Amino acid sequence: MLAGREHVQWRDLETRLVVTMREGTVVWELLHSNVSAPDVVIQATSARSVKVIVAQGAGVGILAPFDTSLDVPGLHWIPLRDAAPVQICVVQRRDTLPSPSALIVRRLINERAGELLEPVIASGPKDR
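The structure assignment produced for this chain is given below.
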């Protein structure tokens, strides 16, 4: 039962069904670097999809703890303690001004940077 824990480690995922982001994402790479043979049941294309699928009981999901206006109820977020921090780098050309959307992304990253430092897993109903 994961939901009652204060934190988990990568080895705790070795015997779990895992819902993760698709191959080629940072999350997928971290999972496969830290768990020798993860039992990936679904590779999703969005964090929202991971949350919805985990909420349906397909397995545990590995995500950063983003809140959204369409958040999925019933998930329990648990810190993944032995995960290396993910580095975020925002770059722009010197000879242009950032677009309004780039400025928004930069502001949001700066505001939420502390929250993004600790990867977590999402535990759904069947993992409790």
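Interim note for the steering committee: The mean pLDDT is 82. The first helix runs from residue 26 to 34.
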